[in-house]
Amino acid sequence: MNTYTDFILKHLKALLSIDSPTGYTKGVTDYLIKEYKALGYEPEKTVKGGVLVDLGGKDEKNAVFLEAHVDTLGAMVREIKGNGRLALTPLGGMNANNAEGENCRIITRSGKVYEGTCQLCNASVHVNGKYDETQRTFDTVEVLPDEKINTKETPKALGIMTGDIVAFDPRTTHYTKRIYQEPFPGRQIKCSHSPWLCRLFKRRAILLQNVNSIQHFTVYEEVGHGGAASIPEGVTEVLSVDMGCVGDGLECKEYQVSICAKDSGGPYTYEVVSNLIEAAKKANLDFAVDVYPHYGSDAEAALRAGYDVRHGLIGVGVYASHGYERSHVDGMKNAFLLLKSYLG
Question: Where is the active site (predicted)?
Answer without folding.
Answer: 221
